[in-house]
Specification:
about 725 residues; alpha+beta; 11-stranded mixed β-sheet; two-stranded antiparallel sheet; 16 helices; 13 strands
Length: about 725
């Protein structure tokens, strides 16, 4: 007897080959569609004039086609091709071979990823168009049968083909979405980050420069110059916008107190108009240039909050160039001084908004640092103590595992890429080989957490109960105990109280009357006399009228009162000023980095004083005396510093302590990311990059794909409408 056995490995291999074949086929289809999409705008200038002349269209004059949107399509297609070539070459050089790109559905290539969404939109429109055409064809078939009791063969064939297209497009759309749109999100490429070695020692100068590139901060040597430049630019930009508005639109030139500026304004306008006249042959491309400048200006305005993508000077240069391009494009398109001046006013005003936002952030940073200043001064005086802690034998840190470092680099790269849409996606591929240095660090910190309570309302339904309701005893912890979090956190804890605590308030929309007055619009038939060829004739027309109508309030249904649930909110806030050795100018970067607790002195717990017992590891006697002196200093100044923390945070002090922690700082350098260095601080999961890698391909896709997408959807919708309306209904 012969027994047949199946080999699971062989079946799995066959399935893998089948999936690979399907992926390759779909990838080729996508590339073919991309080539067609990009080739059509290039071929339209040669084909469209012939097609229009064959249709005897009188809009063609001299055989030339001067359509700005066509020039825009050409420019966007050329730009998209360049972006796609640049992104493909860069990814292939970084190790993303074609098979991997196909397996991950081009998730690393922003242009092809955007093109996949474009194709998906096309398939949606085609599916809807075929569905509408099928319905219209079925109705036409029904009308034919109703009139002649026969079914024409050609109409039956047309209806059958349209119904078949509905099912075919539905399957194609779902398959495309499953294989490209959805699977690309889950098929992130596996990036193997290999660490050559982990060595000891990070230069003190590199540690001392951490965070100075961030904005806002007051740790840079000449930080006040940056704020002065922003304040000066804000005054200049908004002053120029106000002067332009006053001179050109409101004030007469004879009576204006800004009369000396008028000649300069006239000269500037004349130069812009002369430049527009010189650039007139390229007028059709003004729409493209204006669109590109508008998008780049918007991205520069809304991104790069901390100036980690590009520097302050580079961003101001971008704003200046986009403003100049927008003004010139306005002159090319409108050729009117008022339009040019209005564009300049808008661009300068928006540019000034970014400067105002920067100054607002700097002010918030100043308030925070001022609140923490006394605590920082006390902690900074313990630099010698922290240096002694680092070299003491009792300061033991866990060993660093190479595999864990590689995992953290890979995960941290993805977290950084998700922080902003203009950061390179999967840029962990550029980190395949990394050199890691480690440094032992010690941190002294004071931690404060406050608690506060307030009542809010939720719900709101009609009721006839009397106004009023019970007042909630906020701090009656027998009824409403505190849900105390562990550690020091920011947290808003809401508790919806039972119906016994409901309150009744006057309805806001009606003011308690139960009635509201609304404006109602209606139409009346109006009779009038019109004259046709001199002969009077009576006619009617519909005229819109309005009237004030008194209606029952929809919020309270005429009761005039609303009943609400009361919600007891418990607000927890915390602050943790600290100092680090080796010196780091922005200790906020290492918040949450604590690995090993060496010293802890509880100062407050449950809003009351506690036994200030020093909890410490076994330091050497001389160092232990310094630790005790630091603990005594924290105890003696606790009342004053706690009052300052409560003033800044609000609420009552619930928990406070003084502690010293030790942790490792890792510096990661990458061979394929020149001038980019990443940092890990202890257990903190974030990967800190002083300079983020900029995604040029994402920027190019954002610039050039939306116009192509809009044009493609418009053409597809027009074709779908033509298909639906071409089916004649008897």
């Amino acid at each position: 007897m012969t027994h047949s056995t199946s080999n699971p490995a062989v079946s799995v291999s066959i399935r893998q080959r089948a999936r690979t074949g399907i992926s390759v086929a779909l990838g080729l289809v996508l590339l073919a569609v991309a080539a067609a999409v990009l080739a059509v705008p290039m071929a339209v200038p040669a084909l469209l004039p012939r097609a229009l002349s064959a249709l005897d269209v009188s809009a063609l004059q001299g055989g030339e086609l001067a359509l700005p949107w066509l020039r825009a399509a050409q420019a966007c297609s050329a730009g998209f091709c360049l972006v796609l070539a640049f992104a493909s070459v860069r990814r292939l050089r970084a190790g993303a071979h074609p098979a991997l790109l196909l397996r991950t559905r081009f998730d690393e290539l922003a242009p092809l990823r955007g093109l996949a969404h474009l194709v998906h939109a096309w398939l949606w429109i085609a599916f809807l168009a075929s569905l509408a055409a099928s319905a219209r064809a079925a109705y036409a078939l029904y009308r034919s049968y109703e009139q002649s009791s026969t079914l024409p063969t050609e109409r039956i064939v047309l209806a059958a083909c349209l119904v078949a297209s509905v099912f075919g497009l539905r399957w194609l759309r779902k398959g495309f979405q499953a294989h490209f749109v959805e699977r690309a999100k889950a098929a992130a490429p596996r990036v193997d980050v290999s660490v050559e070695k982990i060595s000891d020692g990070i230069a003190a100068s590199e540690m001392a420069s951490l965070g100075v590139e961030r904005f806002p901060n007051r740790v840079q040597r000449w930080w006040w110059l940056g704020l002065s430049a922003r304040a000066g630019m804000l005054t200049l930009l908004w002053g120029a916008a106000a002067a332009l508005t006053w001179l050109h639109f409101f004030e007469s030139r004879q009576a204006s107190f800004l009369a000396p500026c008028i000649p300069w304004l006239q000269i500037a306008l004349a130069r812009v108009l002369e430049l527009a006249h010189w650039l007139a042959p390229w007028r059709d491309y003004a729409f493209v240039a204006g669109y590109v400048a508008l998008v780049i200006g918007y991205l520069a305005l809304t991104h790069n909050r901390n100036y980690l993508l590009c520097s302050f000077g580079a961003q101001q240069l971008v704003h200046a160039l986009t403003t100049a391009v927008l003004v010139v494009c306005a002159a090319l398109i409108a050729q009117q001084p008022g339009t040019v001046v209005g564009t300049a006013i808008g661009a300068l005003g928006v540019w000034g908004l970014r400067m105002a936002r920067d100054l607002s952030l700097a002010r918030s940073e100043k308030v925070r640092r001022r609140a923490q200043s006394p605590m920082r001064q006390q902690l900074d005086a313990q630099a010698k103590l922290l240096r002694g802690v680092l070299v003491d034998p009792a300061c033991r840190l866990p060993e660093i595992n190479v595999g864990d470092v590689e995992r953290r680099i890979t995960q941290g790269a993805e977290n950084i890429a998700e922080a902003d849409s203009l950061v390179t996606r999967h840029f962990g591929r550029y980190m395949r080989v990394g050199r890691v240095r480690k440094e032992r660090c010690a941190m002294a910190l004071l931690r404060y957490m406050t608690v506060d309570r307030h009542v809010g309302l939720s719900g709101g339904w009609a009721t006839y109960k009397a106004l009023g309701g019970p007042s909630v005893p906020l701090w009656d912890e027998a009824r409403f105990p505190l849900n105390v979090p562990a550690g020091f956190v920011d947290w808003l804890d809401g508790l919806t109280l039972s119906a016994d605590w409901n309150v009744v308030r006057t309805c806001g929309p009606c003011g308690g009357s139960g009635w509201v007055t609304e404006t109602e619009y209606y139409y009346e038939t109006e009779h009038y006399t019109e004259y046709v060829n001199g002969q009077p004739r009576s006619a009617t027309r519909q005229v819109q009228r309005s009237r004030q109508v008194r209606k029952t309030c929809s919020s309270c249904n005429g009761c005039g009162r609303l009943e609400f649930n009361q919600v007891l909110y418990t607000q927890w806030r915390h602050m943790r000023p600290s100092t680090v050795q080796p010196f780091v100018p922005l200790p906020e970067l290492v918040d949450g980095a604590e690995e090993v607790c060496l010293v802890r002195v509880p100062l407050t717990e449950d809003r009351g004083a506690v036994a200030h017992e020093l909890q410490s590891v076994g330091f050497q006697p001389e160092l232990m005396r310094e630790v005790e002196q630091a603990a005594d200093s924290a105890r003696s100044e606790h009342a004053q510093l706690a009052a300052r923390a409560c003033e800044f945070l609000g609420g009552r002090l619930y928990r406070a302590d003084y502690s010293i922690w030790a942790f490792h700082t890792l510096q990661v350098r990458f061979a394929r990311l020149s001038r980019h260095v990443g940092w890990f601080f202890g257990q903190r999961p974030e990967f800190y990059f002083p300079k983020l890698p900029f995604a040029w391909s994402q920027l190019g896709t954002t610039l050039f794909l939306p116009p192509l997408f809009t044009a493609a959807v418009a053409l597809a919708a027009a074709g779908a409408w033509a298909l639906v309306t071409s089916i004649a209904v008897p």
